[in-house]
Amino acid sequence: MSDAVDFTKRGAIGVITVNSPPVNALSAAVRDGLDAALKAGQADPDVKAMVLMGGGRTFIAGADITEFGKPPRGKPLHDVLHDIENSSKLIIAAIHGTALGGGLEVTLCCHYRYAVPAALVGLPEVKLGLLPGAGGTQRLPRLVGVPKALDLVTSGDFVPAPQALELGIIDEMGGELLEGAVAYAEKLVADGAPLRKIRDMPCQAENGVFEAYRKANARKFRGFLAPWKNIDCIEAAATLDFDAGMARERELFNDCMISPESAAQRHVFFAEREVAKIPDVPKGTPMKEVKKVAMIGAGTMGGGIAMNFANAGIPVLMVEMADEALARGMAIIKRNYQNTVNKGRLSQEKMDQRMALFSTTTDYADIGDADLVIEAVFEKMELKKEIFAKLDAYAKPGAVLASNTSTLSIDEIASATKRSESVIGMHFFSPANVMRLLEVVAMGIGRKVGKISVLVGNCFGFVGNRMLHGYTGEGTFLLESGALPQQVDGAIYNFGLAMGPFAMGDMAGLDVGWLVRKAKAADRPTNEEYGGTIPDRICELGRFGQKTAGGYYDYKEGDRTPIPNPEVQAIIEQVSKDKNITRTDFDDDEIIKRALYPLINIGAQILDEGMAMRPSDIDIIYINGYGFPAHKGGPMHWADAIGLDKVLADMKRFHAELGERWRPAPLLEKLVADGKSFAELQAG
Ligand code: T1G
Ligand code: NAD
Predict the structure, then answer these.
(1) Distance CA 285, CA 383 (A)
(2) What confidence tens digit (pLDDT) does each residue in 195-229 have?
(3) How far apart are alpha carbons 481 and 497 in whole angstroms?
(4) In Å, what is the CA distance from 145 to each residue of 66, 108, 279, 320, 352?
């Protein structure tokens, strides 16, 4: 038997166990091992039925993604599945941990499925820009019906075992994995249970269900390829016979596999895992336990940040400078939870439990028992240093003191304390209780509150905001040169971002950037370099964005739809006049290059300075913190997909036309000269 799969017997029940850590992925060795084990079980007259299970922490978590794009080896998955389904002896899947993608498809070829209550099943291929290519799109709708199957394959969501039992994906649930599955197999044999094949089950669909589904999800699936292909597959299951449906699935799978979208999403899958690996922090380094948090400032960010910890069951003390500010902050937190309850995404009981974890004060002496203190007050260096001096006085020894500053130097803030080694940056993203990203200058705690932590260096704006200034700055230069906010935002929206730079500025608050520009910190470039003139003039009118019902756009009460404002257009045209700039027209392609290439250029500078460890870390920051589309893989992967030589050529053109701010980063010049990509740089 192979190392990856072993075959044992429990009485008359053969037990096939996949042992291929970390997640028993269906590698060539596992497929060949399954083949050998099945043959052993078929040939053994004493074996009446077989249980197929995973060793270690999980069932099979899918095809081996690291084999994609490589020459095929070992027994093809379809052939292994054919042998399982057409076995002359019952085969029962025994599921624990996760049965995902090809792993679930293996179970759907078994005749019966058993699971422990904590198990999860799902077809997450769409998150990799793919679709279940081993019969999942043809067998699942026969089990759960077309509407549910559409939801499961287009969302890629995991289904807990109790729900999977209700849906009919699994047949039996029990506390014990091996004991329970063997007992279940023995019962099936004793009862003379049939060799039940899902392929023989009917698959019907109501008229128009697919068109309606495509229409209802057009906005959600915008820019992605795989969700549409998944719908086509389910439609094939309902309109073609099984084998024809399988052939259609295979075609559509190959379309996805060769697509740039899937290459980008697979890049993101591994980049999300790579980001947690800090070279000089060995795996298993003990984590600092956080049992209580103190949150300084209950404003836009303070409230959202605090909710993350309450959601993770960690008590939070809210600290403000006055009771009104505390009451305002707590009211916003309560309203946010109530909105989630009203949408049915949180129970009232859970909301009450979380609200009960909050306490409030205006007295800094009350922070003495907090393990972690996070500050999110106005973006002013003097104020932050004043506060950190106070935290140094009242926080207990060993407490971690963190600032949520967007741009200011952590070292300078830390210099206000006698324990700078305990001061870190924890840069959350707005809305903080929603966005998955956390830029950190110490890791670990992020995962506990459901965030992806990315280690970044201490420089102006860290990684995300430093690159953002290039993007938003170029956006305002485009306005000075002839474009309008809705045109730039439209092009960026069609590219795939959640919103353009001007709608985003209005959401985050234009006053944050205005305060920064006014602070004129020594190491920060001038307006000329970052196009501050237009936003300054808008802010001087008290237009800070959504929070003042007007910024670049106007907003109706309770509605976040941006409405172009003629007064803002007049300001833009006046600035062009004042700067003697002849306004010209732009097509979307030129807007995309002008607005997004600064991300690539500054990203390369940041890598050169060591302020980010890997190009893929920058991609994770932009996808999870700034809404950069996963189907483009992030700015650095996107640059590789375009070809760094082409990107550099356009940058050189901009440099010649527009000046110093477009000087290509030396790293970019070097990579092009060496004929290398960012991915090759990372691979070393
Ligand atoms: N193939 C190869 N490596 C994998 C893998 C896979 N399917 N899944 C995980 N790994 C690696 C991962 O890179 C990491 O490596 C380690 O395992 C631990 O993962 C025909 C075509 C199972 C829920 O999409 O969602 O089947 O970084 O850190 O947080 O239809 O991994 O340690 O070197 O994520 O406990 C469909 C993908 C494939 C599931 C566990 N399956 N995996 O989460 O650990 S396509 C998926 C996950 C397919 C068929 C199609 C999660 C997990 P390293 P981890 P975790
Ligand atoms: P905000 O104006 O919404 O809230 C700031 C809060 O700090 C106010 O409630 C104020 O009462 C309180 N405060 C001021 N002085 C205080 C003191 N001495 N003690 C206690 N509380 C005090 O600002 P915000 O948008 O939440 O930004 C806060 C910080 O987070 C800033 O450093 C900002 O750069 C950063 N940040 C903001 C965003 C964003 O999108 N808004 C995103 C990431 C980081």
Answers:
(1) 35
(2) 999 999 999 999 999 999 999 999 999 999 999 99
(3) 23
(4) 32, 14, 47, 53, 36
Q: What residues are paired with 426 via a beta bridge?
A: 440
**pLDDT class of 1 with cuts at 50, 70, 90:** low
DSSP assignment of 429-480: -SSTTT--EEEE---SHHHHTT-EEEEB-SSTTTTHHHHHHHHHHHHHHHHH
Q: CA dihedral in degrees (247, 253, 259, 261; nearest 10)?
A: 150
3-state helix, strand, coil in the chain (%, to 5): 50, 10, 35
- Residues involved in catalysis: 105, 125
Q: pLDDT-derived band of residue 525, with 50, 70 and 90 as boundaries?
A: very low
403 Cβ closer than 6 Å to some ligand 2 atom: no
Query: In the numeric block, which tokens belong to residue 394?
Result: 């009242």
Let me know: does 172 contact 114? Beta carbons within 8 Å.
yes
Q: Which ligand is nearest to the CA of 432?
A: 2
Ligand 2 atom 7: the closest Cα is on which residue?
377
Counting atoms of ligand 2 from 1, which one is nearest the CA of 377? 7
**Residue 289: pLDDT over 80:** yes
For residues 244, 245, 249, 255, the Cα torsion angle rounded to the nearest 10 degrees is: 60
Element (H, E) at 354: helix 348-355
Rounded Cα distance between 224 and 632, Å, is 9
| Ligand 1 site, CB within 6 A | 22-23, 25, 61-66, 98, 100-102, 105, 124-125, 128, 130, 132-134, 136, 270, 273
Q: How far is the CA of 411 from the centre of ligand 2 (A)?
A: 19
Q: The pTM is what?
A: 0.90
Band of pLDDT at residue 136, cut at 50, 70 and 90? very high
Chain centre distance of CA 21? 24
Q: Is the pLDDT of residue 285 over 90?
A: no
Please check the confidence at residue 557 and state whether its pLDDT lies above 90: no
Residues recorded for the chain: 684
C-alpha–C-alpha distance, residues 124 and 129, integer Å: 9
